[in-house]
Amino acid sequence: MTNNHAYDQLMSFQRQTEALSLVAERLGWDQETMMPSGSADQRGEEMAAMEGILHARRTDPRILDWIEASDPPDVAGRAQLRLIMRSYQRATKVPSDLAQKLAQVTSVAQGVWAQARANDSVADFLPTLAEVIALRREEAACLAQGGDLYDALLDDYEPGATAESIGAMFGRMRPRLVALREAVLAKMPPAALVGRFGEAAQLRLSRDLALAFGYDFSRGRIDLAVHPFSSGSASDSRITTRVVESDPFNCIYSTIHEVGHSSYELNIDPDYKLTPLGRGVSMGVHESQSRIYENQIGRGRGFTKFLYGEMKSRFDFDLASAEAFYAAVNRVQPGFIRTEADEVHYNLHIMMRFDLERALVRGDLTVVDLEAAWNERFFKDFGVKVDRPSHGVLQDVHWSVGLFGYFPTYTLGNVYAGCLWQAMNAAVPGLEGQLSRGDTASAIDWLRENLQRHGGLNSPRETIALACGFEPSEGPLLEYLEAKFGALYGL
Amino acid sequence: MTNNHAYDQLMSFQRQTEALSLVAERLGWDQETMMPSGSADQRGEEMAAMEGILHARRTDPRILDWIEASDPPDVAGRAQLRLIMRSYQRATKVPSDLAQKLAQVTSVAQGVWAQARANDSVADFLPTLAEVIALRREEAACLAQGGDLYDALLDDYEPGATAESIGAMFGRMRPRLVALREAVLAKMPPAALVGRFGEAAQLRLSRDLALAFGYDFSRGRIDLAVHPFSSGSASDSRITTRVVESDPFNCIYSTIHEVGHSSYELNIDPDYKLTPLGRGVSMGVHESQSRIYENQIGRGRGFTKFLYGEMKSRFDFDLASAEAFYAAVNRVQPGFIRTEADEVHYNLHIMMRFDLERALVRGDLTVVDLEAAWNERFFKDFGVKVDRPSHGVLQDVHWSVGLFGYFPTYTLGNVYAGCLWQAMNAAVPGLEGQLSRGDTASAIDWLRENLQRHGGLNSPRETIALACGFEPSEGPLLEYLEAKFGALYGL
Fold it and tell me: In this complex, do B42 and A218 lie within 8 Å of one another by their Cβ atoms?
């Protein structure tokens, strides 16, 4: 509490809004992990009702009065006001009916997508997708007020970013990624990990790895989901994973990835709990955490040495050295599925989705032509023909839940992770040795201290720049990839 | 939709309120089944925020205007208005701050109780219990407006019931129950079921029994909880159970009991979904469903014959005939735990709680003296000394979550179940034969058709009277108990 009555009232009102928003988020978690199959329509109504409540609170006219009369006590207080104002201005541009309709339709659409994917039937999904796109375009038009529709959506996930600046960065990255890809694919691939890895043992390993990465089970849990995600914040941030018995890396790296997301939320300064500062600042910065946990740390030479020992003690397989295991973890090959892609291919998946979804939002591409456009582009970029929709246009949940403008934040996250990894290695001596013993404490402490604890205090780019001590750019990521895969493949 | 604009507006507003209330209920489910242990305080804030929203909606002044201008289309419409008015009048008597405070305190108190029970420490629970009682008394004073505090609380769970009428009924029941108890205990008890019954196999049986009782898993699920409960309605009503490896009856009859509750909710006329009519009409009627599933059907000679076969095919144990198994299921013995009590003792547990909680609400008994009062009364009624608080005053969750006035509805439910059982047997020829083959369809159909589908259309007593064709009273239950246990014990 401060001596400033208006500020205190605002923050108390906002605290309840944040709590309600976490309730809505947990409904989403429940839908993906626990909800009975026949409850989808009712859940849509529940989500719409929650969105109605949240929208009314975010547009409450008292917010402006309170902000006007507020004398925030410190820098954090001023940042709170900035974020509340941003949310108010965004929410007031979108009619409540539209916001509720979007919540209801995307909740139901998720089930329609899952069923269509299971049936490998694009046609089953198209009417729903068309409705989601129409609603998001309508929302974007409200938000953009004459400006670019896609930028208006992107701004939800990455404040301050524009499609133009991201497109330009992708343009600089693409030639070096394509060159790296071609050089690697010209070489003989290392041996892959082959075997059957039982579900129960994978889930035990998943739990142990989450602990190794400092995940706090007193404020979280792991469940199974078709499409792994993390959810929640403050004292309750949960992760999900999945198990493929022939490919334990799927479970292992899904888990580590989601632990990165959840740990970011759980490591934010407790003073910011249930305030706007108490959440990760943007999806790009969020992804930088999940990706650095997963890739730079989790798929690095150091940590895979530890992981090799863990795997050897739990499973039977052929790879006879930590070095061979490290090579298998980082095996490069064109594959259909983004979430299973190696680090060389991953960003090419994103660039393709970025171009397609911009065309969808602009109206240059209709859902009827989407599958053909996807397959054509995939063949061009990856040299492989998509063999079924679940390996192609139906693979990702994002568009079904209306997440247009979200995909580029994955590559932005990789770029930020590249910067953070460079800075962390300069700051933490002997890091690889520690990681090879499964000791992530110095790495995680560095991330928490320099980045995670600040939550939404600074802008996304400032957040990275302050942690690294330099302005973020794609350079460090590309150098990291070229060095790592150059060494692995003898380029 | 009707031609009546005010009525349609009211029902549309109410539909969202019902959806939000189901969201709050699901938060409660999550708290008992999924929530990480460190999230209790945050959950308290979330529950309070939801209660704030619900209270504001239940007291929205437009409700009165809409009711005034409404011309409901039919009998159901008039019943909807009656229930909305009832909720409005109740909610407007309680200040929002108090309603939110109660939601927050009882959410956290539940965890405090669970911990105190695990530690067998009454002292750990008393300050919290005192706070819960003080808040509920304050609420009762708002509701009673000079009338009896306990009646005001009871009315939440059993509209139209009074402590006086229930007390009088208990007074009529007690001598016959005590006489039956004494006669039975003077006889040699039948052999008990002895063995180890693995958790996984118990859970599989639990699932199969839920199916045998018609539980719809596409709109529900089973999880484990310390204190079994059912939760939700319409397209999502979930149950919980528990497993004691030495006593499979615990899991079996917890499951069947909760299936009774959830099936009631799931079998209500779909036209009433997300309306006030779409919920079970009272806790007493609810309990009549769970108890008739559990006892009259589940512990009956017919169904236990089927269950014996199921048990024999899954587990190793000594009882050599369905008749011996039926006797073991219905073994009468004084025990500490209400939820494990046989049908002869069960209502004596309730009568004791009814007297104690009335004294707490009146202020005649303070929390400091509660444990002693419990133990003294228990010895008097059951002839056994309570050996530890978790076997005594700490055994039930109810008081921690503020459920004062709830306990008597359990015995009311037993009384109603006695009436329904008499009527069902008159209406369904060959019932015992069907149940002995595990075929519950006629029994469940009779309950759905005559009672469950009506939801909140009629008052609780009318609901029972219409289903039975006669006014409910304690007579049929007592006759059923005397006949059943008379035969079992050769009285």
Answer: no
3-state secondary structure A307-352: HHHHHHHHCCCCCCCHHHHHHHHCCCCCCCCHHHCCHHHHHHHHHH
Instruction: Calculate what percentage of chain A has a pLDDT beyond 70.
Output: 99
pLDDT of the residue at B32:
93
Nearest CA in chain B to A270: B42
Segment B378-420, tens digit of pLDDT: 999 999 999 999 999 999 999 999 999 999 999 999 999 999 9
Instruction: Say which residue the tokens 């991330």 belong to.
Output: A447
Tokens, residue A387: 């063999």
**Residue A344 near residue A181 (C-beta atoms within 8 A):** yes
Among the partner-chain residues A16, A236, A238, the one whose CB lies closest to the CB of B49 is A16
Give this prediction's pTM. 0.95
pLDDT digits (tens, 9 = 90+) for A45-83: 999 999 999 999 999 999 999 999 999 989 999 999 999
**Angle at CA of residue B250, ends B246 and B255, nearest 5°:** 140
A176 touches chain B (CB under 8 A): no
Distance (Å) from the C-alpha of residue B4 to the closest C-alpha of chain A? 22
Q: What integer pLDDT is reported at residue B4 of this predicted model? A: 85
Q: How far apart are CA B307 and CA B326, in angstroms?
A: 9
From edge to edge, which strands make up the β-sheet containing A236-241? Answer: A222-224, A236-241, A230-233
Does residue A173 contact residue A419 with C-beta atoms inside 8 Å?
A: no
Quote the minimal CA–CA distance from B94 to chain A in Å. 20
Q: Can you say how many angstroms the Cα of residue A461 is from the centroid of all Cα atoms in its chain?
A: 17
pLDDT grade, residue A1 (50/70/90)?
Answer: low
Residue where the block lists tokens 């839908």: A31
Give the integer Cα–Cα distance in Å for B385 and A89: 66
Domain chopping of chain A, boundaries: 5-147, 163-489
| Contact yes or no for B210/B259 (Cβ under 8 A) | yes
Which of A15, A16, A25 is the best mutation test for B, with the most CBs of B within 10 A?
A: A16
For domain A163-489, give its CATH number from 3.40.50.1980, 3.40.30.10, 2.30.42.10, 1.10.1370.30. 1.10.1370.30
Q: What is the DSSP-derived secondary structure letter of residue B321? A: S
Q: Is B39 on the interface with A (CB under 8 A)?
A: yes
Q: Is the dihedral of CA A446, A448, A449, A451 positive or negative?
A: positive
* A483 band by pLDDT with thresholds 50, 70 and 90: very high
Nearest Cα of chain A lies from the Cα of B246 at a distance, in angstroms, of 26
- Residue A165 pLDDT > 60: yes
Q: What is the pLDDT of residues A397-448, one digit of tens each?
A: 999 999 999 999 999 999 999 999 999 999 999 999 999 999 999 999 999 9
Distance CA B432, CA B426 (A): 12
Q: Please provide the DSSP assignment of B39-93 as one string.
A: GHHHHHHHHHHHHHHHHHHHT-THHHHHHHH---SSHHHHHHHHHHHHHHHHHHH
Q: What is the mean pLDDT of residues A446-474?
A: 98
Cα separation, B335 vs B382, whole angstroms: 8
Asked if B20 and A273 come within 8 Å (Cβ–Cβ), the reply is: no
How many Cβ atoms sit within 10 Å of the Cβ of residue A270? 11
φ and ψ at residue B202, rounded to 5 degrees:
-60, -40
**Furthest-apart CA atoms within chain B: distance in Å:** 69
- The C-alpha torsion from B22 through B25 and B26 to B27, rounded to 10°, is 130
pLDDT score of A4: 85
Nearest CA in chain B to A217: B36
Cα separation of A305 and B308, whole Å? 55
Mean pLDDT value across residues B70-87: 96
For residue A197, which of A160, A243, A240 has the smallest C-alpha distance? A243
